[in-house]
């Protein structure tokens, strides 16, 4: 499953970069995120509770940052286990482009599923992924802009 797109954020690139690396901001923006914390300079631990179709699932996972080029880009990859529901993994290449006082966040996401999640079908999983991504980017854009406005 692949998702590509971009979001225009009403904040300068340095502020958007800082928000992308702030676990408190990300935890607030990731739908169902119960905890997110740094375990090393390039790794985070996460606990996320989601409803995928008929299944309520709690994922416990790890997130890794590679190809870090502040404040321009990085690759974020992760994997999580949802118990009997299965596993999910993926990566996203994220690039920030300055556009005046705004920033354009480009993303290219690849995700894989295993277990019962994979059996639910591509259409259900695709619509769930699009819904989660849309909510994340709307909340992240608002949080990054608000953080910039508050100083």
Explain what you see:
With 151 residues, this protein is of the alpha+beta class. It has four helices and seven strands; from the N terminus they run E-H-H-E-E-E-E-E-E-H-H. It has helices spanning 13-20, 23-29, 116-119, 122-150, and strands spanning 2-9, 33-40, 43-52, 55-69, 73-81, 87-99, 102-114. It has a seven-stranded antiparallel beta sheet with strand order 1-7-6-5-4-3-2. The longest helix has 29 residues, at 122-150. The protein is globular. The N and C termini lie far apart (38 Å).
Short description:
By secondary structure, the chain is an alpha+beta fold. The protein has helices at 13-20, 23-29, 116-119, 122-150; strands at 2-9, 33-40, 43-52, 55-69, 73-81, 87-99, 102-114.
Count up the helices. Answer: 4
What sort of overall outline do the alpha carbons produce when their principal axes are compared? globular
| Ends apart, CA distance between termini | 38 Å
- Assess the beta-strand content as a share of residues: over 45%
Radius of gyration, in angstroms, nearest whole number: 15 Å
Q: How would you write the strand order of the largest sheet? A: 1-7-6-5-4-3-2
Q: What does the main sheet amount to?
A: 7 strands, antiparallel
Order of H and E elements? EHHEEEEEEHH
What is the SS-derived class? alpha+beta
Name the helicity range: 25-40%
How confident is the prediction overall: mean pLDDT?
89
């Amino acid at each position: 499953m692949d998702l590509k797109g971009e979001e225009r954020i009403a904040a300068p690139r340095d502020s958007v970069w800082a928000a992308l690396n702030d676990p408190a901001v990300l935890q607030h923006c990731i739908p169902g995120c119960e905890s997110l914390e740094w375990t090393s300079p390039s790794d985070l631990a996460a606990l996320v509770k989601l409803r995928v179709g008929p299944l309520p699932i709690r994922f416990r996972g790890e997130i890794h940052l590679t190809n870090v080029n502040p404040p321009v880009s990085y690759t974020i990859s992760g994997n999580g286990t949802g118990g009997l529901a299965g596993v999910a993994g993926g990566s996203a290449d994220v690039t920030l482009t300055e556009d005046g006082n705004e920033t354009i966040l480009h993303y290219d996401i690849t995700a894989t599923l295993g277990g019962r999640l994979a059996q639910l079908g591509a259409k259900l999983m695709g619509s769930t992924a699009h819904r989660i991504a849309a909510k994340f980017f709307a909340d992240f854009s608002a949080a990054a802009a608000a953080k910039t406005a508050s100083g």
